Amino acid sequence: MSRIAYVNGQYVRHPEAAVHVEDRGFQFADGVYEVCEVRQGMIVDLSRHLNRLDRSLRELKMASPMSRAALTLVIREVLRRNRVRNGIFYLQVTRGAARRDHYFPAPDTPPTITITAKSTDPSVAAKKYANGIKVITVPENRWDRVDIKTVGLLPNVLAKQQAKEQGAQDAIFVDRDGIVMEGASSNVWIVTPEAELVTRPAEHGILKGITRTTLMDVAAKLDLKVAEREFKVEEMMAAREVFFTSATGICVPIVEIDGKPVANGHPGTVSASIRDAFFDIAEKTPI
Ligand code: PMP
């Protein structure tokens, strides 16, 4: 079966799916995106993802490509046409195609919208959950508006590649005071020796993950205590559990940081119980 992508109003074969050479997403990273999980034929947390998309567009004074109802329809159609039961969709909106110039283009320039979808192999995630992952820490070097989900991800790309070259799978940004910011594509959580779940506040300095928000609903249901506060690398190294949250991995245990074992080098039970309860509590939209 050939993959299908949505590009500016049309469903096209994936190999031929393309945007204009002077698209501002391509030339300036002048675009925003969302990635949303699909599980058992259900879109997970769609409303929260579309709320965040609206916010990202607003923050960048970018036009919305279509109404929420229309967008939901197209997303579901892309998922159906790609026969995704378990996987993700990726949605990107840019400020459109225009002659290269830093100033915003004319207000009637239509935004570019593309949506792709793919199936994922659940055994890959299962392996991560069973074994945990190794990560490295890297100095925070991103701009201070990472709360906006823009496609400008070069520091994240370089951090992940560095992790790979050092035999790890992912990277955590740490600021100059040793405070843990977030992963290259995820939020970071620790479970303290007192069994408290801790993640840093999301007012600025990190992306406010949708999984992070829903995890708080899950924690409330499971009677787990959550604190939003900053924590340093030393506290993370001494934590009972450390894990990442993101739409693509939900809750991934971290067992090694910078070559040193954390959480006794094994995935923990708190992250496992959150993962088990997550899908039940998250919003589910049928395809
Ligand atoms: N931080 C960054 C930098 C990310 O790229 C992501 C994943 N998009 C997250 C956090 C987690 O966000 P979410 O739970 O919405 O996937």
Task: Give your account of this protein's structure.
It is a single chain. 30% of the residues lie in helices and 29% in strands. It has 287 residues and is α+β, with helices and mostly antiparallel strands. It folds into two domains: 4-120, Aminotransferase class 4, branched-chain amino acid transferase, N-terminal domain (D-amino Acid Aminotransferase, Chain A, domain 1); 125-282, D-amino Acid Aminotransferase, Chain A, domain 2, CATH 3.20.10.10. The strands form two sheets. Strands 7, 8, 9, 10, 11, 12, 13, 14 and 15 form a nine-stranded mixed sheet that branches. A seven-stranded antiparallel sheet has the order 2-1-6-5-3-4-16. The protein is globular, with a radius of gyration of 19 Å. The two termini are 19 Å apart. The structure holds 4'-deoxy-4'-aminopyridoxal-5'-phosphate. The site of 4'-deoxy-4'-aminopyridoxal-5'-phosphate has 13 residues, from helix 6 and strand 13.
Task: Report the helical percentage.
Answer: 25-40%
Number of E-state strands: 16
What's the mean pLDDT score? 97
Shape: globular
**CATH homologous superfamily label of the largest domain:** D-amino Acid Aminotransferase, subunit A, domain 2
Question: Low-confidence parts lasting 5 or more residues at pLDDT below 50?
Answer: none
The number of distinct helices, counting runs of at least 4 residues, comes to: 8
CATH fold name of the largest domain, please?
Answer: D-amino Acid Aminotransferase, Chain A, domain 2
Q: Based on the structure given, which CATH architecture of the largest domain is correct? A: Alpha-Beta Barrel
* Order of H and E elements: EEHEEHHEEHEHEEEEHEHEEEHE
CATH class identity of the largest domain: Alpha Beta
Distinct ligands = 4'-deoxy-4'-aminopyridoxal-5'-phosphate
